[in-house]
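for the record, two folds in this file. i put them one after another cuz i was lazy. first one right below, seq on top, structure tokens after. the second one comes after a little note so u can tell where it starts
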Amino acid sequence: MSLARMIRSAMGWLVASFYGSIMLVTMTLSAIRRGPRAFFGYKVRQDRPKCLDDPDLGTHGYVRLESSGLRFHYVAAGERDKPLMLCLHGFPECWYSWRHQLKEFRNSYRVVAPDLRGYGETESPQPFGYRGWPNFSLSHLTNDVRELIEALGYSSCTLVAHDWGGVVAWNFAIDHPDLVDKLIVMNCPHSGVFAKYLRTHFSQFRRSWYMFLFQLPWLPEMLVKSFDFEMITDTFKGKEMGCKRRDAITDEDLEAFKYTFTRPGVNISGAINYYRAAMKTPPRSYRGTKVTCPTLMIWGDQDGALEVGLTEGTDKFVPDFTLKVVPGASHWVQQDQPEVVIGIMRDWLKE
């Protein structure tokens, strides 16, 4: 291990421990105030919310990928002879994040929204828990996308992505330009832009506290599960991070996302291990790399986790780049303002 990497690792652990200490005190006080039974009172959800089986959203399918052996779950809408639109979700979501796009674009595309590795009904690689983080490196995640496209019977796709799905999509488009016809990324900065911005903007560093917290073992899992996954409620409906449109996320939608993390046999560490792998593996250099396909970035300007300034400089890595900011929309832009986002997508795809 190089000296620079050792220093980077030590600094990461220092920041993670700082946020972990704060969170441990906060969680302890909450458990005392609201009671330990409430704190540890999360429930395994045996029954699927009905919205996950809405036939208007498409049909459920499964494919087993060759190199990993993992069985991937997806929902598909549209005829098989239409071009593929592949939609990658973020954290803490699942395929259901793309419910509006599945219905809207099914007449023009074969729209496929998978559960990513370790999410929902897609299998999670062994070992479970903190020690499994090496299985969630970007090389594994981008290879999943490549094999998924092939398993679905296609040679390329229009790739649509949000949040962590966007991280995967940016890197996939760089490494596999022949497999991406067009790229649409929502509220996820290009990785080369994010790394520099994080170093030079302390305001974004503060907003990224959870990325450092997630480097610790067991504590993040406890936080996510506490008070019956209240963090997921706050994420989608809270004042800071939640959708700005009041009816954007219904109670049933919320249960659908909680079901992703509470269904029997789920590996809750899988989703958190995306963050662990991102910081524990050597950072990639994006110098000289380009996304060669036409690319659309859609950004909700009321994102509680990512500043709008992260959109600046993207054109240095993406020659054919279009940016559309959605005023008043949260991080969950495609769910917060689905009609606006769909309109932007449709107009751009026609070009």
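(here's the note) second protein begins now
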Amino acid sequence: MTAPEVTISNAFDGGNGVLVKTEEAIENGVTNVEVKIQPDIYTELEKKQHFQHFYFRALVKGCGTVRYSIVNAGEASYAKAWKDSTTFVCTTTPSDAHSWKRVLDTKYEDGHLTWTQTHERSGSAYFAYFAYFPPYSYERHLQFIAKCEASPDCTVESLGQTLDGRELDCISVGSGSSVCWIIHRQHPGESMAEYYAEGLLTRLLGLDRNGAVDGQVRNVLQKYKFYIVPNMCPDGAIRGHLRTNACGANLNREWTSTGNDGDDDYYQAPTLERSPEVYHVLKKMDETSVDAFLDVHGDEALPFNFLAGSEGCTNWSTRLEALHGAFLASYERSNSDMQREISYEPDAPNEGMPNICSNQIALRYDCFSATLEQPFKDCLTNPDPTRGWNPARSAQLGASVVDALAYVHPYLRDETEFWKNLPEEDKYIRPTNKY
């Protein structure tokens, strides 16, 4: 049997991965294909080039087993996070989120991320797509925005344009007096964040029920006015970046200037020239104010869903601690994929970075504000080794945040010592990254 011939391409939306070399039938008839991840554009503030996201197409001719290797995995931004990670494969339609499957023999050894795929089809060439996490394409984004726009219950607007000229889409819905902003995918390689947005908006607008919504949604829409940005970094997503926009700005470090004006290390942010995505969103936030805020991401290392709060901010208080605890406890009750014990180690008092989005929002509006992280790995609170964390579960997590927001609403701007009357189960738990 002739060993399969393999070529690699990434010239499509979100593609990243270039062929280094192919060695045919190196052992036991297995063809070895080596691929290298391309780095993001250099980040001026962090002074590095991030990379970890990959998404490429293998065109295969012939039958046999192929071992794919990411040969620069050991140099990636979060190399230690490769341990227990898996690749996803799609051999049908990559735009269909449900067509992606985990490759269970993925392993990280000696700086290489490797996995095998047995190609059994003979005759004409065929393809397989491989990705770190199932992609969320810009075409899917536009189709979903159009679906939202067709709903009579919301308003779709552009807050401005990105560096590459794409619209920064924002969906507003609800008639309440409290303002809730939820933004997604500041880091473009974290596609699970946009699946989360899709699940949230589908529930709020009844997009899968011809506009019909459940009673909890009716309740929430009377209390809140939502502003939801499904994709903060469409340019970076299309370019196949992990963390940066079209010019190399890590948007989650662009929410205020750092250093002192006039000093050599002064870094002005946000600016229209480098981070218009943040500039436009922050401008709109200043118009609406903010009472509750979530910044939705994905985390490469921790196999959990979790919140990172504003503990290190100068305005962290008993009030904000109680809001964080009550919100997260309610979220855990509404969806057991969320949990409270594991997160990043909280910043020490007054040492939080104010240029990080959720910190800046907490400081600027003195409100409940948090970063929500989802795993690239399996979710250990409810492990599913075959399917792992996936787009469907991301969407479910997005839909269930509605219940947590309903629960915490009465306390958002309560000026009394409301925490004294909260049940014990709502108490703030200081998290740890050890598990």
